[in-house]
Write a structure and sequence with these properties.
By secondary structure, the protein is of the alpha/beta class. It has 16 helices and 13 strands. Helices cover 46% and strands 15% of the residues. Helix 5 links the parallel strand 5 and strand 6 (143-146). Helix 3 (68-86) packs across helix 4 and helix 10 packs parallel to helix 15. The N and C termini lie close together (9 Å).
């Protein structure tokens, strides 16, 4: 069985690390990886391939730094050309990026079976490019692998019970990666000493979503809230290039500690040792939970609603008072994270078995 997988952005490299390891352990499966190039800085791409030992992509399209239309369009063309050569049994796409949508469109129009991993997630915010990408990808996929029952419920409400789509609840593939690399991260990362911080004495924050970065009022509010929190606990922010560019061009004053984007091992080391996590990332909300950390989500919605319902996450949006109030009022010592929300960490093997 030949599977072409499409990756291009940071969270997809993390998911691919788990899937590709499982695929390469099976002699009946040939995986061909296409990297679209969407993320291209060494610390947004290469570092993940090196430290997570992800197989080198057979194809690299080097498409990046373009508007949504040009980026998705050029990827679609490039992927279609490769699929003509490879003629796989399946094309597998992850998540919700422009690379996901381009891969999905290319495969489906060539009548190649399309598999979507991390299907069924919804923010119900149609202004997000990610929401558009995931709805369209889900609708044209042949096989949908959902991380949660909530994701399956979303699909059922959209009528998927009437479509000819195979749907599975497989757990979260990012949990596979978190479990696998946990020990390695603790042994290999020295980021705490590099940053001169100690466990539980800092807060980890990230900001990269277009809804926050492209709205200066929201960005200003988030920065102000982080500046305030930094007065009582050091705030460490590995800054995404999107946010960096925008902050450099604005005159927003930053008091907290900004560092370059970091690899997965350093990220896991920071997450698992943080006092709390503040983020607009989807993946980091779950990683905070995997490592028993409370998360304040800097968005108005989340796709990972079970985290909010279970009391592990709060939605504070870009509201300064809400962010600060959540930070000050949550008693992080009094939360029991010992709940299974995302499966058993064997998601990649489950997916391969079903295919
Ligand atoms: C993309 C995904 C988002 C995902 C995120 C993970 C889409 C629509 N969005 O957002 O779903 O959560 O990845 O990080 O696909 N840039 C660099 N160096 C890099 C990568 C990006 O400088 O290595 C710059 C780009 O040139 C661009 C900006 O950062 O100016 C944003 O990059 P882009 O790929 O458009 O989207 P992300 O914000 O990374």
């Amino acid at each position: 069985m030949k599977i072409v997988t499409i990756i291009g952005a940071r969270p997809q490299f993390i998911k691919a690390s788990a899937f590709s390891r499982a695929a390469s352990s099976r002699s009946d499966i040939e995986e061909v990886i296409i990297h679209t190039g969407q993320h291209f800085d060494p610390n947004m791409s290469d570092i993940f391939f090196e430290e997570m030992e992800i197989p080198k992509p057979k194809y690299h399209l080097e498409i990046h730094s373009l508007g949504h239309g040009a980026m998705t369009g050029r990827m679609l063309e490039g992927i279609e050309n490769i699929l003509k050569i490879e003629n796989p049994d399946y094309v597998l796409v992850y998540g919700d990026t422009n690379s996901t949508l381009a891969g999905a469109l290319a495969a489906k129009k060539m009548h190649i079976k399309l598999v979507h991993v991390e299907a069924g997630l919804r923010s119900f915010n149609m202004a997000m490019p990610e929401e558009i990408n995931r709805i369209l990808t889900d609708r044209i996929s042949d096989v949908l692998f959902c991380p949660t029952q909530n994701a399956i419920n979303n699909l059922m409400l959209e009528g998927f019970g009437h479509f000819d789509t195979q749907i599975f609840n497989c757990g979260d593939i990012m949990y596979d990666a978190a479990l696998f690399y946990k020990e390695k991260a603790n042994q290999e990362s020295n980021i705490l000493s590099r940053l001169k911080i100690t466990a539980e004495n800092f807060v980890l924050a990230t900001i990269h979503r277009q809804e926050n970065t492209d709205d200066l009022e929201r960005l200003k509010n988030i920065v102000e809230a982080l500046n305030y929190i930094h007065q009582s606990k050091k705030v460490i922010v590995p800054l995404h290039p999107r946010t960096k560019k925008i902050l450099e061009n604005s005159h927003i004053k930053i008091d907290f500690v900004v560092i370059e984007p970091i690899g997965y091992m350093d990220m896991i080391a920071l997450t698992s040792n943080a006092y709390m996590v503040l983020t607009d990332s989807g993946g980091l909300q779950k990683e905070a939970f995997f490592f028993g950390k409370y998360c304040i989500t800097l968005r108005d919605q989340t796709e990972w609603i079970e985290l909010v319902e279970s009391g592990f996450n709060t939605l504070a949006g870009a509201d300064i008072n809400k962010i600060i109030h959540s930070f000050e009022s949550v008693d992080v010592t009094n939360i029991n994270f010992n709940v299974n929300l995302y499966g058993d960490g064997q998601t990649a093997a489950f997916i391969l078995d079903k295919l």
